[in-house]
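#structure-requests
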Amino acid sequence: MTETYHIPALAEETIEGLAINPDGIYVDLTFGGGGHSRLILSELSEKGCLFSFDQDADAKANLTDDERHHFVESNFRFLRSQLRLRGIGDGEVDGIIADLGVSSHHFDTAERGFSFKTDAPLDMRMNQRAPFSARELVNTYSAEELARVLREYGELDTTWKIASCIVRYREQKEITTTGELIEAVAPCTPKKDGAKFLTKLFQALRIEVNGEMEALKMALEQSLKVLKPGGRLCVISYHSLEDRLVKNFIKAGNFEGKVEKDFYGNVSSPWEAVSRKAIVPTPEEVERNPRSRSAKLRVAEKN
């Protein structure tokens, strides 16, 4: 399964950013196909160890038999508590990586309902054990709640119109598939850039279903506690909402980007940005892996 599950974006740049200590403790918050994890393991000595998080049971198929590697079947929002359960306390981790992109496996497995390109059950759950899916969302949220989700997480225009289209459709028939959702919003879908519109719509619903922004905030805050001074944080994001959170957190230690200054006017942040700008894929990587085209890597070191 590994070969087709997911091709990791910015793999070499991420490993370089981690500045791996062979004897260190590392955490991969988004195991997926295991691409980044395998690269980290290849840099570790027998003393080093790696903890890989993934809430999707499908990811376990990509595990390799390695005593240094510990799989944590959990959402990364529980980073700190899960590490404590395994004997890793605050200030002991050397490096953390998070690749926030939805894996190719999720997009390509039609029945998971992440893509608008195939008609499938309207699901979008990263964790198949979770009770709340996109089907519940589109059929139970009020027009006001739908409009908020589409505005905040899809950055769409005319969100009231889109929400009204969904509500009108479901009054006649429950929306159970991706095809029915597309049909419901057809009156609002622009003839030009229809695919871009649907991409944003599906993104917004997926983020809400999985609580992605809240989970990211929780993981970032906990990373500051579990990393040791000099420890590295590498985050790959794929849309502006995530990138803005990561950028602000590295810049100021908070998600609003409000910079605090000391008595002498120097910016006070718990992080030191390793690269001033986000690192993006080379044209060659985008050609090899088109899904990497929107990837942005930010690397920071804990002060």
